[in-house]
Amino acid sequence: MCWERGVCKNVSFNLSWPICFLCQQDGNGKASRVIRIGTRKSQLARIQTDSVADRLKELYPDIHLEIVAMSTTGDKILDTALSKVRVDLVVHSLKDLPTTLPPGFTIGAVLKRENPHDAVVLHPQNVGKTLDSLPENSVIGTSSLRRAAQLKKRFPHLKFNDIRGNLNTRLKKLDEKDDFAAIILAAAGLRRMGWENRISQILGPEDCMYAVGQGALAVEVRARDVDILEMVSVLHDPDTVLRCIAERAFLRHLEGGCSVPVAVHTQVKDSQLYLTGAVYSLDGSDSLKETMQTSITANDKSSEEVDERVQRVGVTASKVPGEAQDRAERLGVDLANLLLSKGAKEILTVARQLNDAR
Ligand code: DPM
């Protein structure tokens, strides 16, 4: 029973009296509405979805959540999940979401980022080694152009080959065959899978900068679904939102897309947002890297609550000061312009052509 004096105790707001839109209870405690969360079928997707469902359950104990597994793959999940399967929200790894979402959809929450760095997972017979100490011509598995470009330059004694499939498949390919001496995966995904013990080395920014949005979960909703948007908005982590808006603005302005050798590093410190961004040729021999910063203190009190309909690089964050979000976005665009003025477009065009021709 969630009603008291006409206000639902489960939520801090009251949008659709006399029935609470979230727990759908009227004054007599009759409940009906179910919130449907779509998930892909991979173990990582399910774990990520469950963690968001658990957070929502804690925040809104009386809501009824239903998790719907979908066999949609790749980009198709973006619009089909929400429109055809009729779920209310979908949990994604932010780094898999394009910087422009299909019309009608938005990212209603970006959760606190975990370790955004990449990690080395060694073949069991190489335990104790590092990328540095692996023998000449050892084969490292990754299909990320970003990882391969940076690591080829940094560790010229190593070879890089594609490895595909979900995390379970990749770990199996590593352990049960002798094709790879090691593979590179995001530390965040490994931790979520409970495989932290397989991490032999975390790659710092001097070895390998991370992908835009890496390590953060995103909740995709219908942009016009204000009730759901309001509900998930409490999951936003303000620092993560600002970092990811800057990173996504950088990538979008470079016209990067998800499969180009572009890497970032961001930090929030003393109300400053720092963004380092880089582009690489496929073998890493050619690269451009710059850092810029901006203040993210909001001076204007009136900007504290921002218009719910405003989307920045696909993100709606009405509880994060609008001015700080604008500055973060501008930082990304400015850094992209700086790199473009130094020849980033040419590096990325060549990388894209060579990769398409492979
Ligand atoms: C994207 C890339 C990869 C994923 C490209 C990149 C890695 C592909 C590969 C855009 N999405 O990182 O340069 O290694 O062949 C992906 C993972 C996660 C989300 C797995 C991983 C989990 C971590 C997270 C695949 N997407 O990168 O190891 O939430 O950031």
TrEMBL record:
Family label: Belongs to the HMBS family.
All copies of domain Porphobilinogen deaminase N-terminal, residue ranges: 78-229
Pathway assigned to this chain's UniProt record: Porphyrin-containing compound metabolism; protoporphyrin-IX biosynthesis; coproporphyrinogen-III from 5-aminolevulinate: step 2/4
Cofactors (names): dipyrromethane
Keyword Transferase attributed: yes
Gene3D superfamilies assigned: Periplasmic binding protein-like II, Porphobilinogen deaminase, C-terminal domain
A cellular-component GO term for this protein: cytoplasm
One Gene Ontology biological process: heme biosynthetic process
Nucleus recorded as keyword: no
Name of the protein this chain belongs to: hydroxymethylbilane synthase
SUPFAM superfamilies, sorted: Periplasmic binding protein-like II, Porphobilinogen deaminase (hydroxymethylbilane synthase), C-terminal domain
MF-aspect GO terms: hydroxymethylbilane synthase activity
UniProtKB keywords: Porphyrin biosynthesis, Transferase
Entry's EC annotation: 2.5.1.61
One Pfam family recorded for the sequence: Porphobil_deam
Domain of life: Eukaryota
Ranges where the Porphobilinogen deaminase C-terminal domain occurs: 242-301
Annotated organism of origin: Amphiprion ocellaris (Clown anemonefish)
